[in-house]
């Protein structure tokens, strides 16, 4: 069974058939739920960041966020992430936050008075927490 390949001048000799399963390294057994546990740990340690622009808007518009508000905002970002959102508008306690869900970064903040008659673009989701 020595066939010649066109353009190749070296004869090809037959090779013994090998068991393909034996050539593969054994995979580790992954216990059920391990992925969910790792994912949950990552989500719990994630911190929401504020861009420089968002920090300036917080100061300019006198919006103060305490630990409870930040936790509520992080929960809203997690909900948006669970739905596959990338850029989300989050309405919380009369304030509007535009958040990059992918980067876990607040892009801008608009207070209730400034939010009237505004148009928000380049978002793919909205989360209402009130």
Number of helices: 5
Distance between the termini: 77 Å
Q: What order do the SSEs take from the amino end to the carboxyl end, as H and E? A: HHEHHEEEHE
How many individual β-strands? Answer: 5
Q: Tell me which CATH architecture of the domain at 48-128 applies here.
A: 2-Layer Sandwich
Structural class: alpha/beta
Q: What topology, given as strand order, has the largest sheet?
A: 1-4-3-2-5
Nearest-angstrom radius of gyration? 27 Å
Overall geometry comes to elongated
Mean pLDDT: 80
CATH classification, class level of the domain at 48-128: Alpha Beta
- pLDDT below 50 for ≥5 consecutive residues: which ranges? none
Strand percentage: 15-25%
- What is the fold-level CATH name, i.e. the topology of the domain at 48-128? YaeB-like fold
Q: Main sheet? A: 5 strands, mixed
Helix % is 25-40%
Please give a structural write-up.
Helices cover 35% and strands 18% of the residues. It has a five-stranded mixed β-sheet. It is an alpha/beta fold. The longest helix is centred in the middle third of the chain and has 16 residues, at 67-82. It has helices spanning 20-23, 34-45, 52-60, 67-82, 112-115, and strands at residues 49-50, 87-92, 95-100, 105-110, 125-128.
Provide key terms for this protein.
elongated; YaeB-like fold; 5 strands; single chain; alpha/beta; five-stranded mixed β-sheet; about 130 residues; about 20% strand; 5 helices
